[in-house]
Description:
Blueprint: H1 2-7, E1 12-17, H2 26-37, E2 42-47, E3 50-53, H3 57-61, E4 70-76, H4 80-97, E5 114-117, E6 119-122, E7 125-132, E8 134-139, H5 146-163, H6 171-184, H7 190-204, H8 213-226, E9 229-234, E10 240-244, H9 251-256, E11 260-265, H10 273-281, E12 284-287, E13 298-302, E14 307-310, H11 314-338, E15 342-343, E16 349-356, H12 359-367, E17 373-377, H13 389-400, E18 406-409, H14 439-442, H15 444-457, E19 464-467, H16 473-489, E20 498-503, H17 512-518, E21 521-524, H18 526-534, H19 550-562, E22 567-569, H20 580-586, E23 590-593, H21 598-606
Phosphoenolpyruvate binds near residues 377, 525, 526 and 527.
Amino acid sequence: MFLFKNLFPKPLSVPLTVTSNNGFHLRPVAQFATLARSFPCQITATFSNKRVDAKGVNTLLSLSLEKGDTFTLVAKGKKAEEALEKLQLLFETLMQDDKEIKKIEKTAYSYEGFVIEGEIISEGIAIAPTYTYHTKEVQHRSEMDFSTALAKSIEELETLYRNKEEDENAAIYLAQKELLISLGTHCQTLTELEEKVEEESRKLVGTKLDAKTSDYQDILQRVKKQLGLEIKVTFPDTPFILLCNDLLPSEIDQLQQTNVSGVILKETSMNSHTAILLRASGICSLIADTQNLVEDETVILDTHSGVIVQDPSSHDLQKARERLSKESVQKALSAKKRFEPAITQKGRHIKVFANAADINTAKTAKEEGAEGIGLLRSEFLFKDVKPSLEKQQKAYKEIFELFDDITVRTLDVGGDKALPYIQIPAEDNPFLGVRGVRLFHTHPELLEEQLHAIFLAAENKRVKIMFPMISSVEEFIQTKSFAQSVAKKYQLDISHLHFGIMIEVPSVLFLMDSFNDVVDFYSIGTNDLTQYLFAIERTHPLLKADALSPALFSAIEIILDKANKPVSICGELAANKNAIPKLLNLGMETLSVSPKSIAQTKEEIRYV
Ligand code: PEP
Ligand code: MG
């Protein structure tokens, strides 16, 4: 009897009701399917007599679940009970956290020109000629086969997701990755993938998920690019207001580098990933019917009132220009304040540094008012191919020239961070495995080259070199002597450089007295310190450690009490407005935060 029960386990089921106003859409579906895939049992979802695989993003999306819909989740086989329990918990959390994107209230307007009304994506004023979106397909040589292109594209999206972890929109990349896995799995050729994308997009037409078709196109473009087929978009050199049906989410980054003054989209929705990213970019944008607009005509785009003014009168133009210049003055004022030091009410100057990943983020950090770089995450400098020594040296030099105070962290690969050219054998617990400084043992040649490049770039600069994931004093001493031997081998003087550690592993807390004798500085990495203190993986979909737990503050207090060398903090906690007063009261003098958080962090400090 017992044997039969195990051979033919009964399916278990649970009803789940969609409570979010947005429905069960791509981003939460992606997180749900990722967790479902981690279980060995078969998991299906049934709604309205339709039963689909719950491990696939596109299959789940095909149920078109909206607010109020109840579907049944059924699990059968090994770990079925655990799977249902965890998926139910995740689903409830996803529903609770999925905030509705509120419509922006329109302000009244009075224009003399012809007015076209629309829906506001992002507020602002723009006056510029219109420009219609053009694309051109360019064919490059590529030897890559379809399955490698697919794998590379999935990997690219995974890296984008990981790199943007600090960004609230990172889930968009996870969603696209899951979508690509789900659509690409059964395709052997590009044509098959194109057909699949076409078929799936057709199913979305007219549904609430219509706007997700741009995600389908985006992932297809990514694979095509690997195969040498690139869609090139051209933009004018002078200011313009972009007119287009829709944009791909991945095009927003590129758009930000242009002279764009505003964007008018015809076929998107407030919840589309394109709209979310446009809002985050701050580009003034509107959803409106553009069929009456012609190329190269000057219009006013007023997204406070949600209108386009065609044929504006001179009075309209004058009014809009005055408003535009008032807005620019306001922006300039807050920008100016970013460059002012952050002084507390009691007159303490707290340094606000930036966490940077490459020259672009370092430049943004400079523009945002950073006083230095507290953490250069060097693993993100070269994401695709292993760089040459010269390339590395050039990249470091460019960044080092921007600030007087720079801390560069040696490669922190492993755990959740992967580089395609560094192979780390599969591990059961990668967060407890070969990562960070432990790579010095497994990949000494890589680290030698990196240190050599940093030393060359820091020839005349007192750069701080930081080792990640240090857990014992011996490990630091060994790593530093490795660095010294590299300098000796290439006959380089590194006496002006400082060597320090990230405090991420709790063992360091108990060894502070000995560390004080050997290190030049400390930087607390609260992201990892929290995961190791609470034994909760930082990327775990269900478990979340309390970011403001007293245990974490006690750990920081111990470090600050014991340290006799400068201590800074570079984890996410440094930008948390509820944590800042506590950190300053404990004696923290330097906070290193993401470039976008600099102005706000400085402002928070000024109130303490
Ligand atoms: C940290 O662990 O807090 C940290 C800043 O490093 P990373 O997030 O890059 O692991
Ligand atoms: Mg870390």
